């Protein structure tokens, strides 16, 4: 009798599980359809891409990609890489010590500090656009990719601090105490114990910062000018009010998404681990 | 394996790349600030894309390097307005329209080019720029207080394009000077299945739906404002024209009209899904090479109370007052807006190239060029006539605001209130609001927009 109950419960769980995974599939498919559409359109000719109703089985063409390449995408891609990588590096260098001082050896009123970090994200970025523009203009940083590095660093720092703090808070303090007993100094501790243990956290924080700065358009468009044009700004250049552009834009979008995909793939294992670590508290 | 290794490898690669990049971007930043380099901000229309491809020839002839930043129209306008208002000197020159140039000139943001135009020595090849060859309405729209602030790259008016074969099949004839009532009658007879009777812009934007609509307003006796800045949007000719326009496009227009702009209508004509299209004269070059190209006829902008009603628009070069390279900027302008440039792109093939796509509507001499007339014979004269009949300072209306502009009101605030009004009209075309409530909302938007001028 008891066994029957358990069996029934297991059956119900199985059914519920089946429903859940079906739901997960539906959502995943819904998310991926626009992306697949983009990839498919990228391989169509401009005329086929503009057809209404859409023609799925139109002959494939590389014309979108050759238009993308003809527009000289390398300088903007390099600018994007510089801005994203340098800012991510600075964010990690600054966020890790900050997170350390907020969790392992909490400073006084650390909750206020955390809240202060978060509060810098309250203001919509567009509200700061004009002041940033004026500062950049007066310091001669307009059109300089390092202006973007500085801004992206400060933009992403609060997120990274919050993420890393939750990872560090998970870390058993006893390990640090034990290493201290063994005579490890502060830097040895950081390098040999803290960093390896929060690697998943660092990887996911780095990836998120990289994605945010890679995709940023508003500031790059306003401050980047001609010389520090980034990939998303370059992408908007394909949209035109005269003439067809769908295939070009899709091809450019595919090409510009590839570095982020590559970064995501490289950090995938760590990322899954890191994201779930943060969630299970 | 692997995850740690993989992460380690990717971190190492990332570090190396970053180090390499920072050094190379530093060097490229240095070179682009050189005295022989111009930074050009421009709209990414096909003619400008073609310019980008032939620009190395200018560099070869003059030694002046040119960096282009090309943006979609709306982004270009917002970027240009911050750039010029701040005199930030990120760019030396930009494509500005005859909407911006008079406003910028009055504020001192664009440089006076008058002295260059008459000095052959200052041009890129030492030849006379020939200012008198620039079509008069274009030159007028870029001149403020007798000083020239811009040189047109290409210009346009508006006219009615129609399919001669469909007209013939339906037993219709296009009159030499059609009226809007006649056009509405044709549209009703020509709408069949998936073919729209007429394609008209309905998309949000003061440069989208408001451009053709405002020309209809003008010819139906309406105006945005009287000469004392009282908004006249929900009364008289403005209301009549809007009702007419919305009704026409809803009944006989293209499907999805509330999202359709220049590109969508252009595409509809190319694919044979519209029998008529009232839009820019510059569209003709894109139609002539299409499947139905030989079947397309051109008639003047339809009228009602005025003799003509075409708009006037140009993308022109304006030099920033703060630029330290004005002489080099003029060399570039004298090349891009010069007579020889037309031969440069006319003889090639590719995006925006070829004689059908040369930057037209700027120079009178183009309209006597046999190479151009060979491909453009069907639309060259209608285009020239449309441009020459457009007067930015006199639309033939009885009352008008004390600023120039045919399809726009030439005050800086227009970009904002024109945009908001276009939203209302587009909603009316989509059917989510009635024309009268859209116009009532627009009336107060327009009145608020000019409160700084109203005495």
CATH fold type of the largest domain in chain B: D-Maltodextrin-Binding Protein, domain 2
Mean pLDDT over all positions of chain A? 87
Give the CATH class of the largest domain in chain A: Mainly Alpha
Radius of gyration of chain A: 24 Å
Spatial ordering of strands, largest sheet of chain B: 2-1-3-10-6
Domain count of chain A: 2
- CATH third-tier fold name of the largest domain in chain A: MetI-like fold
Q: Which regions of chain B contain 5 or more consecutive residues with pLDDT less than 50? A: 7-33
What's the helical proportion of residues of chain A?
A: over 70%
Helical segment tally of chain B? 18
Bin the strand percentage of chain A: under 5%
User: Low-confidence stretches of chain A at least 5 residues in length (pLDDT < 50)?
Assistant: none
Largest sheet of chain A: none
What series of H and E elements makes up the topology of chain B?
A: HEHEHEHHHEEEEHHHHHEHEEHHHHHH
Distance N terminus to C terminus of chain A?
Answer: 37 Å
